[in-house]
């Protein structure tokens, strides 16, 4: 076993690796960017080395600097986590050339699975079922259209070097193929430097089921499947293990296929073989096909750990240090059911835009495994993925595990940024999901309902009114003056709605709160009671804010009565940055005529590109930024001329 390793990553996965290393007595070295100098993973590690910069290219993607840090600190091996350099074969070769151990697969294995078309050919040769389609070298648009006709619509255009849903387009009919192809290739070229695409048959009722594999370079085992069908824009939202409705026959067939895939490339370490499944007629042993192999630890690995009792990071360390597979296939079994929900800083009601902010309050419930890389007071940065945590639960059955998930999400408290917590709660209560009737289109079918902003009831507003007045703590004195009840007015803002609440002190930490034409008796003493009914609400505050944690998180602004209204504003003709980010490109100049929807500029934030478009036909008056500028949320980017 190693005595010291370096972790070439950040956030929750770096913290996750450190947890296992601490248990095994292995010392850890963290690396960090300038903006991560005080991050949780840095505080947890035994040593830390600065990589400088803020953007990944200036820090976590600097393979040479990471290797230098490992050698300087006496680390024997490098754990890549996931993302960044975890699937970069050149980095693997550089690590090994420096006399260090890469905790993961060989460079040749990564290359074998790096391009989707070559990987499909290799898997077909290994006897792994693959989706009907075209993955040849020819990329002439007319020829690709002919291949799509032969496969039969609908089809999926997919970048061969893709990932994260980039360079993917579904095409329902021949008339839309040319535009979809051009769009997919353009996105792939920008994201991966490779515009090459393949074409696959679109499965009409698709489920995304993947198999966890682990190899020692010669032999491999599988640790059963995970269902990752709850996705939005090809991004996983809630994962579970095992897959609902899985049969013994199909599990055996998928497991065998995944092991063949791993052994065909001499795989070492943790990996995932992803399959697309046709669920139109239930799960069948002949109804699944290889999609791709992820040659690294997956974000959702905790659900596999929960049902198998295996620490996959420990297995990674043991095999990389020269030990054999810790368990054989017949020693592995499934115990119960597990779910993982990904908690993100994003505004689901506003197109799921990534958000930033400082976490003024963060608490996870007892009984749930919270994988996180942040603490109260930490900032969600525009430079990296906006994940706050993964909430993981386990139970003896799917039904009990699902109840635990609902309870864990209801008990999670976050303030300081907008999150998808309400969206996750609604999804966990969705009838089809509860029944195990899942497919990759479930979220899109009901996205408006699932993403709608929760509206606080009058009871939650009443509690917020007390908090705004500082009356949310036990007062220790009667709220009476000369036997006359004290009366206050609390002012709150919920979204665009101004709220005025009349609060009357009744003594003994009891208050009558009247708002929206409704009155409630609210008691604060040993917990909240509203109209003599105990409620599980809690209250937090931050600068100018009050947060009521009651299943959902309701954040109210508390206006400063002395503040001067400075919202003179730019008006509807100004296009503003919806979040902090980097201006990637500007597409207009003053005097240009544009039509509604025309691209004006592109903003990069949270590893995604966001097009800023014209709200109406008109003339560009001013361009207020240039490519390369770093801007804050609300910054003016382009001003349109006033209508004549």
Main sheet, how many strands, which sense, barrel? 8 strands, antiparallel
What is the helical fraction, as a range of percent? 25-40%
- What overall form do the CA principal axes indicate? globular
How many strand elements?
42
Q: Briefly note the structural class of the backbone.
A: alpha+beta
Ends: how far apart?
74 Å
What is the overall pLDDT average? Answer: 91
What multimeric state do the chains show?
A: single chain
Number of helices: 17
Tell me the strand percentage band: 25-35%
- Please state the CA-atom Rg, rounded to the nearest Å: 27 Å
Strand order of the largest sheet: 14-13-10-11-12-15-22-20
| Stretches with pLDDT under 50, minimum 5 residues | 476-483, 562-571
Describe the model:
The chain is of the alpha+beta class. The strands form eleven sheets. The chain has an eight-stranded antiparallel sheet with strand order 14-13-10-11-12-15-22-20, with helices on both faces. α1 (11-24) links the parallel β1 and β2 (27-32). It is globular, with a radius of gyration of 27 Å.
Task: Describe the structure concisely.
By secondary structure, the chain is of the alpha+beta class.
What key attributes describe this structure?
644 residues; alpha+beta; six-stranded antiparallel sheet; 17 helices; 25% helix; globular
SSE layout and pairings?
Blueprint: E1 4-7, H1 11-24, E2 27-32, H2 40-44, E3 47-50, H3 63-73, E4 77-79, H4 89-97, E5 101-102, H5 107-114, H6 116-125, E6 133-134, H7 141-151, E7 155-159, E8 168-171, H8 177-192, E9 197-201, E10 206-216, E11 220-232, E12 235-241, H9 248-264, E13 268-278, E14 288-294, H10 301-308, H11 312-320, E15 337-344, E16 346-347, E17 353-354, E18 357-358, E19 361-363, E20 369-372, E21 379-380, E22 387-395, H12 398-410, E23 413-415, H13 421-428, H14 431-434, H15 442-445, H16 447-451, H17 458-468, E24 480-481, E25 484-485, E26 487-494, E27 497-507, E28 510-515, E29 518-524, E30 528-530, E31 533-534, E32 538-542, E33 545-550, E34 552-557, E35 574-576, E36 581-586, E37 593-594, E38 599-605, E39 608-613, E40 618-623, E41 630-631, E42 636-640
Parallel strand pairs: 1-2, 1-4, 2-3, 4-5
Antiparallel strand pairs: 6-9, 7-8, 7-9, 10-11, 10-13, 11-12, 12-15, 13-14, 15-22, 16-17, 18-21, 19-23, 20-22, 24-25, 26-27, 27-28, 28-29, 29-30, 30-31, 32-33, 33-34, 35-42, 36-38, 36-41, 37-40, 38-39, 40-42
Helix pairs in contact: 4-5, 12-13
